[in-house]
């Protein structure tokens, strides 16, 4: 079995004396692990940084084997991340969430394209938080927990939407919420693609997406905890706001 393509490096860990096991997110083969011979050595290890864009060739005797990778660096994103504390926290959140949320070898080409676009914005701190929030919405959609924010789940209205139902993930208007408003999640305008989206509002939106990551997606994955890297990113953005 053999294939070649591009991918985004999610993680790398030492394997044996000199090899490394890497986890790569590819458009056609999803999240796919493999062994890089010499991956812990001086020549290759500096390439294997989270977020790196790689050209990879994977080979195994049988399809269900872990297999081996040959890798070539296409684009490093380390410099963009290291120049900003927010960027570094964001990069770590993205790679950790993908490793957390995606089953192995299940293709998600749409999510891959969104992830590549997002990571290429690293270092542009004025626009990255909003792009990241939109990426979390795509991640929820791709994993089966997308939000429906088009109309009120109670009244059907498309105006005056202020809340999100934690049970259904649907929008709720102020009128539809009534006395249940304090039990609902916030729906800031930026979640619907409206308004200037200041950082404080994006943090509020991430409170809502974070609820569905924690209360819906995590249980579906066997109650794995949402990665701490995501919390660290939200904390970094909160301090900026």
Question: Mind sketching the topology for me?
Answer:
Blueprint: E1 2-15, E2 19-26, E3 30-36, E4 53-59, E5 68-75, H1 78-82, H2 85-101, H3 109-119, H4 128-142, E6 161-164, E7 171-173, H5 174-177, E8 185-186, H6 199-220, H7 228-240
Antiparallel strand pairs: 1-2, 1-4, 2-3, 4-5, 6-7, 6-8
Helix pairs in contact: 2-4, 2-7, 3-4, 4-6, 6-7
Compute the number of strand runs: 8
Q: What is the CATH-assigned architecture of the largest domain?
A: Up-down Bundle
CATH class division of the largest domain: Mainly Alpha
Order of helices and strands: EEEEEHHHHEEHEHH
What does the average pLDDT come to?
96
Helical residue percent? 25-40%
How large is the count of helical segments?
7
Query: Over the alpha carbons, how many angstroms does the gyration radius reach?
Result: 20 Å
Distance between the ends = 50 Å
Based on helices, strands and strand pairing, what is the structural class? alpha+beta
Strand order of the largest sheet: 3-2-1-4-5
Poorly predicted residue ranges? none
CATH fold-type name of the largest domain: de novo design (two linked rop proteins)
Task: Give the count of structural domains.
Answer: 2
Oligomer class: single chain
Largest sheet: 5 strands, antiparallel
């Amino acid at each position: 079995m053999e294939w070649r393509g591009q991918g985004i490096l999610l993680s790398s860990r030492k394997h044996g004396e000199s090899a490394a096991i890497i986890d790569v997110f590819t458009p056609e083969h999803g999240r796919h692990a493999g062994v890089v011979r010499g991956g812990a050595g001086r020549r290759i290890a500096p390439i294997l940084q989270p977020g790196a864009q790689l050209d990879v060739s994977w080979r195994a005797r049988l399809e269900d084997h872990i297999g081996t990778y040959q890798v070539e660096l296409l684009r490093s994103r380390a410099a963009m991340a290291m120049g900003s504390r927010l960027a570094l926290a964001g990069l770590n959140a993205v790679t950790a969430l993908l490793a957390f949320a995606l089953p192995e070898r299940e293709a998600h080409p749409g999510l891959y394209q969104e992830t590549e676009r997002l990571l290429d914005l690293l270092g542009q701190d004025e626009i990255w938080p909003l792009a990241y929030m939109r990426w979390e919405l795509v991640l929820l959609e791709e994993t089966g927990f997308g939000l429906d924010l088009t109309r009120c789940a109670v009244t059907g209205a498309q105006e005056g939407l202020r809340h999100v139902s934690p049970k259904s993930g649907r929008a709720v208007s102020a009128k539809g919420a009534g006395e249940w408003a304090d039990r609902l999640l916030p729906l800031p305008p930026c979640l619907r693609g409206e308004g200037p989206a200041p950082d404080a509002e994006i943090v509020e939106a991430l409170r809502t997406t974070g609820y569905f990551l924690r209360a819906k997606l995590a249980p579906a994955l066997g109650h794995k905890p949402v990665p701490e890297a995501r919390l660290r990113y939200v904390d970094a953005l909160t301090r900026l706001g």
